[in-house]
């Protein structure tokens, strides 16, 4: 099978409904002798900022000379992006090799009917990660939680070097719960017995309380970051919120140093300064019209964008999936600009164009719908009279399409 056929096969296992449990991934990793236990891991959970946190950590460790694996989700353009070693994506050949192994194991387990359930796509992708990074003998693997924490497939690991929980907000409420405390309780599942835990400086101190109580039960050493602490590093990632993520990274690096990892100050400086991470306030186009790309897909993220752009002359191009908080995202986007172009994303997850138009029109009388993304960008430039900012946001799927479009235009 080629990579497209393999990917198609993997996505055949996509569940119609979420059924969070570690039982399926446990059966799958049992088949591979639980090799995940032989990999040194850093585990990162949170609603917003976990990908950026993982990227900064990975880059610093790479600068320090460690062979660093990075497993994140979702991907923007190619599935290979989910698996990186020292910033380099897995090759098509390696992905096919490890995916074939995991699919064969999955089919065998399903055939034996060892349990009344079906292994899902994310569990397959996570098993591929463990096999790949184990075989490649990475020094450290940074694991980004896919969804929640407690029942996420990545949470099969038992003893991470350090766990990190970054900012918590409202997302995936149908699965994780509708209150911030319910969501926090799902994330706290990555706090492990006698493993250090680094916590974000949350606005809501009730969130901190949930995590501290869990950490005490697990006899885990707690490190709580403080936004008022001095932070003198230059960050390549834009936005004030990235400083908060970077404080978690710096605390985690200190823990690793105390564990004997040789990470010098210059590694930290260079790592922060050169971290690449697509679709996080990424400047796609410079000039009189600047085009920014950001994967913000919940209210909290949009509010961070509002703080960053702060009354700039701006047109927003957006598409939002049906399972998101469309009402409040529309409200927050309308506070950034009244010039809004709605577009579509080509994904199997639903977007309801009519619903988007109706919702956004409550907050602005300058909303229009343009199906084609390139045409939407052209129209935005006309609205700006070729001077100002275009912000493409609302969905990581939309960001992936924008990146593909810009790469194609470069050729």
Count of alpha and pi helical runs: 15
Q: Distance N terminus to C terminus?
A: 28 Å
* String of helices and strands: HHEHEEEHHEEHHEHEHHEEHEHEHEHEH
Shape: globular
Tell me the β content: 5-15%
Order of neighbouring strands in the sheet with most strands: 4-3-2-5-1-6-7-8
Give the averaged pLDDT, no decimals: 93
Provide an overview of this structure.
The chain has 411 residues and is of the alpha/beta class. It is 44% helix and 14% strand. The chain is built from 15 helices and 14 strands. The chain has helices spanning 3-11, 23-31, 50-63, 92-112, 121-135, 173-176, 180-187, 205-217, 240-258, 265-274, 299-309, 326-336, 353-361, 373-383, 396-410, and strands at 41-45, 68-71, 83-85, 88-89, 140-144, 162-165, 197-199, 222-224, 282-285, 289-294, 314-318, 340-342, 367-369, 388-393. The strands form 2 sheets. It has an 8-stranded mixed beta sheet, sandwiched between helices. A 6-stranded mixed beta sheet has the order 9-10-14-11-12-13, sandwiched between helices. Helix 3 crosses helix 10. The longest helix is centred in the first third of the chain and has 21 residues, at 92-112. The chain is globular, with a radius of gyration of 21 Å. It starts with a helix and ends with a helix. The model has no long low-confidence stretch (mean pLDDT 93).
Give a nutshell description of this structure.
The protein is α/β, with parallel strands linked by helices. Helices cover 44% and strands 14% of the residues. The chain has helices spanning 3-11, 23-31, 50-63, 92-112, 121-135, 173-176, 180-187, 205-217, 240-258, 265-274, 299-309, 326-336, 353-361, 373-383, 396-410, and strands at 41-45, 68-71, 83-85, 88-89, 140-144, 162-165, 197-199, 222-224, 282-285, 289-294, 314-318, 340-342, 367-369, 388-393.
């Amino acid at each position: 099978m080629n990579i497209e056929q393999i990917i198609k096969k993997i996505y055949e296992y996509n569940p119609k409904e979420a059924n969070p449990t570690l039982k399926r991934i446990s059966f799958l990793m049992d088949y591979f002798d639980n090799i995940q236990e032989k990999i040194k891991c850093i585990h990162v959970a949170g609603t917003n900022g976990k990908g950026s946190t993982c990227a900064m950590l990975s880059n610093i460790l790479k600068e320090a000379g460690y062979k660093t694996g990075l497993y994140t989700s979702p991907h923007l353009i190619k599935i290979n992006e989910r698996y990186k070693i020292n910033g380099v994506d897995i090759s098509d050949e390696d992905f096919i090799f490890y995916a074939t192994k995991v699919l064969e194991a999955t089919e065998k387990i399903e055939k034996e009917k060892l349990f009344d359930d079906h292994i899902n796509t994310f569990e397959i992708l996570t098993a591929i990660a463990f096999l790949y990074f184990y075989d490649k003998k990475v020094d450290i693997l940074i694991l980004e939680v896919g969804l929640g924490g407690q029942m996420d497939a990545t949470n099969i690991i038992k003893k991470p070097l350090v766990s990190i929980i970054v900012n918590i907000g409202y997302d995936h409420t149908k699965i994780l719960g509708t209150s911030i405390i319910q969501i926090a309780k799902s994330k706290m599942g990555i706090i492990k017995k006698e493993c250090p835990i680094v916590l974000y400086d949350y606005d809501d101190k009730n969130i901190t309380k949930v995590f501290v109580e869990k950490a005490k039960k697990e006899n885990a050493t707690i490190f709580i970051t403080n936004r008022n602490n001095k932070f003198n590093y230059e960050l390549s990632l834009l936005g004030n919120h990235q400083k908060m993520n970077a404080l978690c990274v710096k605390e985690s690096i200190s823990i690793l140093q105390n564990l004997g990892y040789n990470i010098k100050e210059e590694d930290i400086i260079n790592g922060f300064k050169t971290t690449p991470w697509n679709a996080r306030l990424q400047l796609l186009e410079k000039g009189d019209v600047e085009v920014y790309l950001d994967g913000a897909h919940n209210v909290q993220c949009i509010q961070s964008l509002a703080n960053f752009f702060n009354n700039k002359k701006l047109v927003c191009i957006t598409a939002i999936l049906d399972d998101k908080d469309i009402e409040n995202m529309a409200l927050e986007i309308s506070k950034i600009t009244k010039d809004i172009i709605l577009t579509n994303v080509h994904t199997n997850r639903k977007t309801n164009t009519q619903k988007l138009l109706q919702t956004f029109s409550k907050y602005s009388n300058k909303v229009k719908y343009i199906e084609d993304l390139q045409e939407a960008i052209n129209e935005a430039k006309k609205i700006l009279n070729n001077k100002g900012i275009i912000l493409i946001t609302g969905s990581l799927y939309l960001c992936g399409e924008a990146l593909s479009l810009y790469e194609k235009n470069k050729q």
